[in-house]
Amino acid sequence: MTENSDKGRILLALTGWAPEVWIEELARAAPDRPVTLEPDGEADPSIAYAVVWKQQPALLSKLPNLKAIFSLGAGVDHVFADTDLPDVPIVRVVSPDLTTRMSEYVAWQVLDHHRLGPRYRAQQANRIWDEDRDQKAACDITVGIMGLGELGTDAAAKLQVLGFAVSGWSRTEKQVAGVTCFAGDDGLGAFLASADIFVVLLPLTPETREILDSSLFARMSKRGPLGAPVLINAGRGGLQNEADILAALDEGLLSAVTLDVFQQEPLAPESPFWTHPKVTLTPHAAAASVPSSLIKPIVAQMDAHDRGEKLVNLVDRKAGY
Ligand code: NDP
Ligand code: OXD
Known about the structure:
- The protein is an alpha/beta fold.
- It folds into two domains: 9-93 and 289-306, NAD(P)-binding Rossmann-like Domain (Rossmann fold, 3-Layer(aba) Sandwich), CATH 3.40.50; 97-281, Rossmann fold.
- Helices cover 30% and strands 17% of the residues.
- It is built from nine helices and twelve strands.
- Helix 1 (20-29) crosses helix 9 (291-306) and helix 3 packs across helix 5.
- The chain is elongated, with a radius of gyration of 22 Å.
């Protein structure tokens, strides 16, 4: 990893992910762009681009010739956790592979709650044969999606194919086929009253931090066929107030939750979420970033940028996503 290149080097900065497969994929896609692996590369003038998942703070701002930062996640809160960021464009992941994986996860979890998966698994564990003869139809259930972006709109389309009614909530006004759309603070109350199962696909920003709290749960509809609402959070752990979720489950304000993301990851062994009977959890596994799907488009963007073309999937720094 010492050779030079006219195109400049790529800094690969990863926390918690094994680097080998990313290095291999970069070498395949960009043989003319040598890779430096963090923590090497400090202040290296030959580094042109950074490809990051939770980079070390204050590293990128020291690179004098950095042209852009590529996030290996769709979410970019991990990039902004570094408060000393250079003023270069930030590009995030928008990928059919990642989107498909997320919609699979959403469909899986919505169907699991709808078809009483947690209840029947508990019955199986206790050898109880007890069919619920009142199983609702999908069309009797409204799924409310918080975040109608790349992931939310695809999930909305696929849930409709399964027969669910879908509503959605976004920051700005949107029109999404077949979806009853609400936006902003003004639309939040009506949105919360509109659904039975809530799927959270929001980015973590200063506006959305701990938005999933007792006051929000109290505003969710309890008139639907499921009684108390179900919450599925595959966005970010920072969106949720975890003590409030546990209290809401115990008080019956929520009937069940699926959580893929947590305030602290990995989840601490002593967390009550592991064993709570109304909690289904997965280890931030809803939609993985896969090197063979993501690296080629990232390198294509580097090449396009070097030719003077516009970058796409840019992060809006002011909005924070
Ligand atoms: P997008 O940026 O495409 O969409 C974000 C959506 O959230 C938009 O509809 C946006 O509104 C809305 N939003 C943002 N801020 C607010 C707010 N304050 N109030 C209401 N709505 C708001 O993101 P993606 O769909 O690509 O990804 C969403 C998130 O999913 C990521 O940020 C990441 O955190 C998470 N994720 C989790 C994964 C996992 O494995 N668990 C994998 C991949 C992503 P508007 O349309 O008006 O801009
Ligand atoms: C992402 C993630 O943001 O994997 O893409 O969480």
